[in-house]
Amino acid sequence: MKYSPEMYEQKLNEFFDRHDPLNKHLSSKIAEKFPERQEDVFNHLTTVYAKAEGTLEKAMEEDIILTIPPKANTGVG
């Protein structure tokens, strides 16, 4: 997956519209922080929100959302 920066942010907005509208403001921050890790970002968000689906009574904590696992064999995010 390789979206343009604008489309990447739009897809993040759509994700947050569906799953956590209160954190939609993080879309631009995520797109800026992880421009080359789009697939990792969506996999992470899908996993995080799948665990919480149906139990979300308030916005997901920002640090959970922004903790994208490191790439294999790099030790960094």
- Percent of sequence in beta strands: under 5%
The counted number of beta strands is: 0
Radius of gyration from CA coordinates:
12 Å
State the domain count.
Answer: 1
The helix/strand order is HHHH
The geometry reads as: globular
Q: What's the pLDDT, averaged over the residues? A: 86
**Low-confidence runs of at least 5 consecutive residues:** none
Category from helices, strands and their pairing: mainly alpha
Sheet with most strands:
none
The total count of helices amounts to 4
Helical fraction: 40-55%
Structural overview:
There is one protein chain. This protein has 77 residues and is mostly helical. It has one domain (5-65). It has four helices and no strands.
Quick structural summary:
The chain has 77 residues and is mainly α. The chain has one domain (5-65). It has 4 helices and no strands.
What is the topology?
Elements: H1 5-19, H2 27-33, H3 38-52, H4 62-65
Helix pairs in contact: 1-2
Short descriptors:
4 helices, globular, 77 residues, single chain, mainly alpha, 0% strand
